[in-house]
Write the structure tokens for this entry.
Amino acid sequence: MSEFGGMEDLLQDFLTESSELLSEVDNKLVELEKRPDDRNLLNDIFRGFHTIKGGAGFLNVEAMVSLCHRTENLFDKLRNGELTLSMENMDVILAATGEVREMFGALSQKRQPPPAPADLLAALDRVLQGEVVSLAAPAPAPAAPAPAPVAAAPAPVAAAAPAGSEPDWQNLYDNLLGNAPSPTPAPAAPAPVAATPAAPAVIEGESRAVMVEPMQSLKPAPAPKTQPQGGMQQVAAPETTIRIDTVRLDQVLNLSGEIGLTKNRLTTLRSDIMAGKMDTGTLKALDEAISQLDLLVGDLQNAVMKTRMQPIGRLFQKYPRLARDLARQLGKDVELVLTGEETELDKTMLEDLNDPLVHLVRNAVDHGVETIEERIATGKPAKAVVELSATQVGDHILIEITDDGRGMRPDVIRKKAIEKGLIDVETANSLDEKQSLQLIFLPGFSTKDQISNISGRGVGMDVVKTNISKLNGRIDINSSVGEGSRFSISLPLTLAILPVLVVRVCDQPFAVPLAMVREIIPIDAKQVQEVSGRATIVVRDEILPVKSLAGLLGWAETQVPHFGVLMQTAEHSFILAVDSFVGRDDVVIKPLQNIRPTGVAGATLSGDGSVVLVLDMESLLSSNTADTSSLKTSRFVAQAF
């Protein structure tokens, strides 16, 4: 039973606001280490602790009040010049913010948190008396835990149904048409004590506040999570609410009203036509009304998408504290620079991006940058710089993690991959530098000889790539020895609506993600050449392999393909041979239930009401020889409706 009877709503509001406020305080504490005499920072941090203490006092959370009161007093003395800030005392302060975050975890479970550890309270009291108290270097901030080890999968879709099993066709049909009942949600794992609480967020405007639940029908089916290993913390359940500016909601409301008026106009025209009124004026009015409806629906779709967009800065703000604590633990001097924090991304994608970005930031600090002594010996500044940036490029978001560290050596990576049995010598010798860098994404790969509590187990980078692939994104690496490395993540703006190119093969339509399409070219049999036993075409002096879509699906070709789609994946380019094209479309993907063939991401409905399977090209290509039985079943699915 809740210990906050009658105040649950106030508790959730407190957790939402205070968690964000504490993240801001953490970042300002990191900044304060660089500018210890900045009175504005000291005042802001003082007010942050004062605000959290006030809310905790209203809810009678005595343990948090006691801890925040000491920290508040400490910053009051710092801003008044009665105390000076040292690196050791900053460790004590950051330990206090970590304890406050743990208390948030207890409150998120609607229970009173236990008092802060006596040694922490005693350390704060000694700092208040002017002593320099040395604590062990803090572990990385618990607000952003490292990704739990999960089994690497080559594709974001599940395996096909077991052979011989009969799928539930009615359930599949309902799902494809969007009528399937909502699946029963799995019970949420208990929130860890150290995690930021997953509290609902209030949508604030100038004078109004409303609460909006996310559109679950547009959210991709979550992949099952494996249990954390090695004592890792359980990741907190994702938030189920979203904060939206009321201006955007007003736009949705206005467009809904306009669509209602257009619907009334169409209803009147329908009655006129049913009554036999088929003159030129009526047909022209019908055409204008349909055009108006098409325009309004497009505007409404864009407006709804904007309500799901959130600034990526809400995710980035977790990482300065993480980088600072990890660098302190490793004896390094690292500054994390954030740029493009105002760039907006789909809320559901923000949640799924946290683990990959945590690992990449940790990797940059642990593997990427050198120790202070190594940097000075090579003529570099003692302070290393890691930059985390985000920018919108067309209809994609580009996120980059760049460091000025030691860089990566492709020859060393190939050697390690061979030693661990991940690739053979022949394969290694055939890889160029860019392909060699991609080896770090293989499951079990690690360049660390010693296993520590930070890295060395070969778990992480494969998870990063798998999670990015689930978001229909790709990750690339550029690295120069002695200069540093850059990881570039390209993501679609939203997963709710996917732009696709609809192609036709063997009289069946299929959709491929438009983000992978570079251009469409005609295929002339005279242009096809055989190189090393593979069909290729030369396009602007680039030799590209030709892959038949029918062959990838395991179908017998009914005609010679006449068209090719020049496609680009993270690793290579190729020509996808198809029979014909239907056109470009924006679709909402419905996941398949009970039957999930390899190479199929889901299904959608075309304009004429027929079912179109959406292909997962990465999975289709990585499987090399497609699972013929499962993909033939997919064909039956498409023909059934």
Notes: The CA atoms of residues 259 and 295 lie 10 Å apart. The chain has 19 helices and 20 strands.
